[in-house]
Amino acid sequence: MKKGRKNSITDVAGITVGHQTIKNEEFQTGVTAIFPHQGQLFKEKLAAAVHVANGFGKSVGLLQVEELGMLETPILLTNTFAVGTAMNALFRYSINRNKEIGDSAGTVNPLVFECNDGEINNIRGMAITEKDVEIAMQSAKSDFEEGAVGAGTGMRCYQLKGGIGSASRILTFNGKEYTLGCLVLTNYGQLKDLELAGYPIGVDIAEYYKKSAVKEKGSVITILATDIPLSSRQLKRISKRATVGITKTGAFVGSDSGEITLAFSTHQKVPSSSDAVSSYQILNEEHIDELFRAVTDMVNEAVLHSLIKSRATTTKNGQIVHNLQQCLQELQKITLDKKYQEVLDYLQYY
């Protein structure tokens, strides 16, 4: 399918992404901030939906999105023990820009998502501060780095280095082009399950590097964004297909892994106070299969980006977390097996 100009979630006009990365001898962690549009989100809300494929997670704000179908703050990604800090920072950000919050307009619903980076990062040290969250938000722009940055700094994917990945697709309806984008935070999967280009490549990597199987206890957060006119019900439907994308590389969504997707549309802003009856455009359901296909394809690519663009690192216990491409290159060099070059060529496409 046709990709956006940057092949990124920020191909959807108005979206920006920022990171704050903490990487030193003790910590490997961070924060990633996503701004759905550049206006006042609390006053100009967006249609949104949440899908939880497996609910092992500590995210904040999902319940209200599920009930009301609206998004009214930026979106933050971080590690599990920083959720409270990120939530408070998002509260302060919102009330500093909207004097009516907590007074004449009630409260605000912050959206914070997490994965556990404790295998690599000293998560018990709780390194992230509200200032780090502010830095991530202040650095948001349309061009941003993928891989082991921001919230992805300490994450693993299929026991290899994972992190932040993004992709986009272009769809045409009634002669007009629309954009569908995604961003993933990958911290899930067992190496033995990894399949690429039709090969069970994870088994080979596990055997060569003597990596034993681990219990599936990671998570993956998927953010879907589009400028296509969709209702919250339709956004719910496309968010379910993100799970197909994250499992195309072999994962099975384990019991202790949190697979959570948030989807939103920027097509129409919903004012905080409006007429009793409002009219909005929505996509004809006859065309929604095109979105299902795009979401599956795009999320799969974003997962691959998180693996390809993340550099190898060392855990807090001194163990190496390898980069996928480096593993394949070493196996190809040593064994001369053509399948490893085929997989590398497959990844080159992305």
TrEMBL record:
InterPro entries registered for this protein in UniProt: ArgJ-like_dom_sf, Peptidase_S58_DmpA
Endpoints of the signal sequence: none
Gene3D superfamilies in alphabetical order: L-amino peptidase D-ALA esterase/amidase
Family: Belongs to the peptidase S58 family.
Organism for this UniProt entry: Tetragenococcus solitarius
Name by which UniProt lists this protein: P1 family peptidase
